[in-house]
Design brief:
The structure is a homodimer of 331-residue chains. Chain A has 331 residues and is α/β, with parallel strands linked by helices. Chain A is built from 14 helices and eight strands. The first copy, chain A, is globular.
Chain lengths: 331, 331
């Protein structure tokens, strides 16, 4: 692969654009904010979302979708709420003639309950589709700290071609054929990271957070398997790996949001102050709807839904969880 | 259950003795150090291992095994290296006539490769045997922070009776019939916590630690299943729950040891300064031997064995792990 297009200029899109340029690809980098893209083109830094990274010269910035060429590789790195609309806009551009389109966004569309690559499939008929996921904080990838990712695609040759691109001495990628499981795992970890953050904000301790993470993993596996993923995927990098990275890292916006809620801030106040999207807020609503529809038992998700969207206090939400009847672990 | 005996006066034994007394049981508390036990009896504090906890009046301290009565419940909370010898000494005392003996120690005996409850079975023929495990930092249990544990026993009625004892508004216990899996899970998390600590000491970042934890869980499941545990146990509190609690908490002696090694201290220097036993050091040797005998692939365990017992540098050990050939995740 020689030419790549990166759609979305948040921290992860910026880190990925830089990674691909450093691997020798010609990179076209799109963001919707004209002023931001012009500033990045000139200063070689995304001061708003990833200020410490100097972008290689090979990254060409634009805010015009119509100016983008067809590529060997398109990375979709927009927020989950913008994925369908962005794909629709791209469908009538040269980008739709690209070889491979990869979703790098974690989430489930709220109105439809669709996975991100399903939305891409609705608008792109030519390109092969794939998913990049795993415990990949953009800030650490930008600093070239050791990182492992999963690349899922239905076509094995697509996964292998992407694996070749996403390999560096400090960056390892593993292939998977379980697109559905990898996407569900990625979408589900965000609400649980908010829950872990709330527990931290309430100062419940490491034992409580570990118990919460364990139950979150069981819930992810239960719901994601019912939705069509393979159970084993949830024990891998895109499942438990991303879950623990998100629940235990202060890089995570969702975890930081949870901490603020646990410490007594309101969701509205926190959101008014933070320019970054905490994907877990819309994710929780989408997943809650899907869980009810599929009739899967999800007490942790229900608790965090109650706190985010039904006005329950963080203490009420988590105490409800901790005061259930004792039972056998395997039940 | 009315009368309990707690054998071992480290931080976990002290927290458990206090818990049982607060639940209304008569508690006999044994430690091998006469001066320490006398000091605890008088000051109601274990200044050496858990100084912040005031022991309830119901806890009776002694250093004489022969003075202990038969109990409804005996908790064995000595280091894994002392379990066989302590059980042997108890076998000729009244304690051997107790109803239930519970191992609260995580580890595999180095010379024999036996689990702790196997060692107890070698010396106690009368009592029912059980295991208490999970993400249970003593310091947090002492402060009554929310905690969940697993109680494993072959006899369901034993597990249920213990569950009733180990229940409080802030302490939840789950039963399991997989004694083997629960013990292997508990024994294996310590070496991995050292590995996570090394990664932290080397400042490799959250992505690297999450990848390491993911691979550690796969390894635990592989080795523990081969040794006779149920795979699902490793996805529970005694498996992934305790693994993440230990890998991400500064309460963990093993994690702290790893951090010191990653920052350049030698094992000998660290051990000379720390009065607490980091179980992971002997555990790594025992598990390495078992893995070789059972012919199970354990690259993470091998790496940590190399650092602890073969003089490899932390960087060598972890870089060996990160530079393996890319592959499919499920391989």
């Amino acid at each position: 692969m020689r030419r790549a297009t990166v759609i979305g200029a948040g921290s992860w899109g910026t880190a990925l654009a830089s990674f691909l340029a450093a691997r020798g690809l010609e990179v076209h980098f799109w963001g919707r904010d004209a002023a931001l893209m012009q500033a990045i083109q000139q200063s070689r830094r995304n001061e708003r979302y990833l200020p410490d990274l100097a972008l290689p010269a090979g990254v060409r910035c634009t805010h015009e979708l119509g100016s983008l060429p067809a590529s060997d590789l398109v990375l979709m790195v927009v927020p989950s709420s913008a994925m369908a609309h962005t794909a629709q806009l791209l469908a009538s551009t040269a980008v739709a003639q690209s070889q491979v389109v990869v979703s790098c966004t974690k989430g489930i569309e709220q109105s439809s309950g669709k996975r991100m690559s399903e939305l891409l499939g609705d608008h792109f008929s030519g390109p092969q589709l794939a998913v990049l996921s795993g415990p990949n904080h953009a800030e650490e990838v930008a600093r070239q700290q050791p990182t492992a990712a999963v690349i899922a695609a239905e076509q094995q040759e697509t996964a292998l071609a992407l694996q070749e691109v996403f390999t560096a001495p400090w960056f390892r990628s593993y292939t998977s054929d379980d697109v559905v499981g990898v996407e569900w795992a990625g979408a589900m970890k965000n609400p649980y990271a908010i829950a872990a953050g709330i527990a931290r904000g309430l100062d419940l301790g490491d034992n409580a957070i570990a118990a919460l993470v364990t139950r979150a993993l069981a819930e992810m596996t239960r719901l994601g398997s019912r939705a069509g993923g393979k159970a084993e995927t949830f024990s891998g990098l895109s499942g438990v790996g991303d879950l623990v990275a998100t629940c235990y890292s202060l890089h995570s916006r969702n975890n930081r949001l949870g901490i603020a809620l646990g410490q007594g801030q309101s969701l509205a106040d926190y959101q008014a102050k933070s320019p970054m999207v905490a994907e877990g807020v819309p994710n929780t609503r989408s997943l809650y709807g899907v869980a009810k529809k599929l009739e899967v038992r999800t007490p942790v998700l229900d608790a965090i839904y109650g706190v985010l969207h039904e006005g329950k206090s963080p203490t009420e939400g988590l105490i409800g969880l901790l005061s259930r009847e004792p039972r056998a672990e395997a039940e």
